[in-house]
Amino acid sequence: MHHRGSHRRGTSDERRWNTWLSLMSALRLWPYHPKPLEDESLSSWIGRVVVGNGTRPQTFFLVNKRLDVRSLDLDRSADDALLELFATRTATPYDRVVTTTFRSLIGTMIEAIPTRGNLPWAVNAIRYVSHWGGCGQQWCPACLAADVIPYYRLDWRLASSACCPRHGILLADRCHSCGMPASPLKHPEPVCHACRVDRREHPRVSGEATAVEYEALLGHIRRNAVVRLGEYGAVHPISYFRLVRHLLKVLAFGPRALTLREIVSKTYGGQSHLQFQPQKAVHVELESLCPQDRHTLLGLAARLLVGWPFRFIGTCLEARVTSNYATKDLVNPPFAIWDPIRTYLLDPRPPARPMGVFRNRRPDSRRPHMVSSTA
Length: 375
Hints:
The chain is an all-alpha fold. It has helices at about 1-25, 40-50, 55-65, 75, 80-90, 95-100, 140-145, 210-225, 235-250, 255-270, 290-305, 310-320, 325, 335-345. Helix content is about 40%, strand content about 0%.
């Protein structure tokens, strides 16, 4: 019975799509063709366009692309054909459409978008959401309430955004009623697609001042590609974001992470507690942490970056962090983090001994003692 019901639903979706397509294919522009709003994500924009033209995103992608919206992350994986289709039918410049995707991060936050696996700085969007699995689309309830046309921002997809710089409150990532994540493709309106609760009514929690200011700075760096880092001077934004991401991982994960956070909190301020429990997950990426935890980590990182690298080095020495620990999982490290770690942090391995020197070596009693011929 389940398969028959699924077949009937698929047939109904296909008829609906064919009807919609026959009406729209002859039009140069779709009847409803809004342009992307400021910093709007592709998922949010496509959801508004498709619904405004009388069909559902589920129907569009299932029948036209043979894709399930539950497994789609359009902001990351939309192909050129899809971008060209919506650019043409809405009279939107193609370059403007590209800025609604993660391709706009290339050259400032990332070097390229991998075809699979974790994308640095992109909050994970997964099909089946567990408590620590990540929710993908965050939102600010105050921004949605203030919007004339509510929409979801691309900034809200970034792990560097855990609070709203405009309202100073933490971003939400789950429905406060049922716990489901937001899905602009399932429901472009600011209403939970599962329980119909208004997302604009999500409880508002104020952010910590240092973290709010630093997250706003990261947004500025992403858009303007200008950053200076202590005595290392001008640093390319890609190197800077790689350094910051590794610093956040050192503060979040590993046996010394809690000690590091407590030292930073006691010495420079900020919170040290995270909701994340390491024993509940085998492997968790930074991008899968909840907004509260990322906000806490960003506030601690902001304090360590002042006068770089000396606060960071001092904290590591007090926590007995070695160079091996501080560079764990760090591939092609930026010079601004590799140089101070290599210079100031100790390596737990014993120093190499000169050739021919044997420490704690007892004389071999089986060999006769050599007697000098001059004796």
